[in-house]
UniProtKB/TrEMBL annotation:
<keyword id="KW-0378">Hydrolase</keyword>
<keyword id="KW-0479">Metal-binding</keyword>
<dbReference type="GO" id="GO:0016788">
    <property type="term" value="F:hydrolase activity, acting on ester bonds"/>
</dbReference>
<keyword id="KW-0862">Zinc</keyword>
<feature type="domain" description="Succinylglutamate desuccinylase/Aspartoacylase catalytic">
    <location>
        <begin position="33"/>
        <end position="273"/>
    </location>
</feature>
<dbReference type="InterPro" id="IPR055438">
    <property type="entry name" value="AstE_AspA_cat"/>
</dbReference>
<protein>
    <submittedName>
        <fullName>Peptidase M14</fullName>
    </submittedName>
</protein>
<dbReference type="InterPro" id="IPR053138">
    <property type="entry name" value="N-alpha-Ac-DABA_deacetylase"/>
</dbReference>
<dbReference type="Pfam" id="PF24827">
    <property type="entry name" value="AstE_AspA_cat"/>
</dbReference>
<dbReference type="GO" id="GO:0046872">
    <property type="term" value="F:metal ion binding"/>
</dbReference>
Length: 372
């Protein structure tokens, strides 16, 4: 096994100084080994994933490896410079308001064009041709990202960052994007057809997402391959290969905990072990896991402005009609509207809540994985 580090230049500041990020490559030394891509902190305040990658780099030399790794522990140098007082404001570009995690490239027509290019090919139902299809389609995906980055009209900063990261991720067979929420419990976004695989991360809550693009890296990674697989199946071609991709939410932002990062690492290694990619990983204590379809993952918006007390915490099980928060309105302290209760519209598990006690009408108070 060999670990190397590259400083990837992303931009320059106004003085011409390069702005870059470290990328760690772990080579297992085996020919034709698959590749795992893991990144963290595309939202700059979401730092726990960086601690997990540190634990991984420390622990990997102790394992048997059947895969190579590309590890990017702090992938957004633009966001980490944007502060308001004591807090990082790295979820959105401070200049444009763009979400740093919503500009990955996806072009559904690319799949159609590639499928059409296979018309008239000789038998595709053998392993050699499957490997060729994988190689050719990966090249097409990579070129489409590169062409967009080099386009005559240019692209915005969030697109540029996302495309540079995606140019690394497109080489991988497994993509894991590490995030955190505001005040959040651990949860994972999994493609609906990979839920049983996602259980192996040993994270208590799984949000099952459809094969529909919404701008994130996991979707940009797995959807083209899923559509290719389905398109080939319609042509009578048995095609087994697909990229697995997940967004893993590791608790709350603006914090790191190395002890918890070690536990998070164990969950990732458990997943990799079940995929045959590592051996010798530490054992886990299996958690009870709840799966919720994305359509049942609900946001509760505030109907009141004021100062909120969150009674239900991230990870709590709540019942329909239960008081989960209370809102103080200082203009109404002299009457019975000075303190208002907020009740849960449904039973379920609190995944996260807004990090501030100051809210307005329309503020996202809670996200709840509701009981179907």
């Amino acid at each position: 096994m060999k670990i190397t580090k590259e400083l990837l230049t992303l931009n320059q500041d106004i003085a011409g100084q390069e702005i870059g990020i470290p990328v760690y490559y772990v080579n297992c030394g085996k020919d034709d080994a698959p590749s795992v891509y893991i990144q963290s902190a595309v939202h700059a305040a979401e730092m726990q994933g960086s601690a997990v990658i540190f634990q991984l780099l420390t622990f990997l030399p102790k394992l048997g490896l059947n895969t190579n790794f590309i590890l990017v522990p702090n992938c957004n140098p633009f966001g980490r410079t944007q502060r308001a007082g004591e807090y990082l404001q790295g979820r959105f570009d401070a200049t444009t308001g763009n979400n740093w995690n919503r500009f990955y490239h996806y072009d559904e027509s690319l799949v159609t064009k590639f499928l059409n290019s296979l018309e008239g090919s000789e038998s595709l139902n053998d392993k050699a041709n499957e490997k060729r299809i994988v190689s050719d389609f990966r090249f097409a995906l990579s070129k489409s990202i590169e062409d967009l980055t080099k386009g005559e009209w240019g692209i915005n900063t969030a697109q540029y960052l996302n495309h540079k990261l995606q140019s690394l991720a497109v080489k991988a067979d497994l993509v894991i994007d590490l995030h955190t929420g505001p005040s959040s419990t651990r949860h994972i976004y999994s493609p609906d057809f990979l839920v049983e695989h996602a259980r192996r991360f040993n994270i208590e809550n799984i949000i099952s997402i459809p094969c529909k693009f919404a701008g994130a890296l996991d979707e940009a990674s797995f959807i083209p391959w899923r559509l290719l697989q389905q398109g080939l199946c319609e042509k009578g071609v048995e095609f087994q290969y697909g990229v697995k991709a997940f967004t893993v939410e590791l608790g709350s932002q603006e914090n790191i905990c190395l002890t918890q990062a070690y536990e998070d690492m164990k969950g990732i290694l458990n997943f990799l072990n079940t995929e045959g990619l590592v051996t010798g990983n530490p054992k886990i204590d299996a958690n009870d896991i709840t799966v919720t379809a994305l359509k049942n993952y609900k946001t509760l918006f505030s109907k009141h402005a004021g100062m909120v007390e969150y009674l239900a915490k991230a990870g709590d099980k709540v019942e329909k009609g239960q008081t989960i928060a209370r809102v103080l309105n200082s203009l109404e302290f002299d009457n019975d509207r000075g303190l208002l209760e907020i009740k849960s519209p449904s039973s379920g598990i609190v995944i996260l809540h807004y990090p501030s006690a100051a809210v307005q009408v329309g503020t996202q108070l809670y996200k709840i994985a509701t009981d179907a």
